Amino acid sequence: MKNFFKKLVKDESAQGATEYILLLVAVVAMVVIFKEQIKQQVDGLVGKLSSQIEGFGE
Question: What's this model's pTM, rounded to 2 decimal places?
Answer without folding.
Answer: 0.52
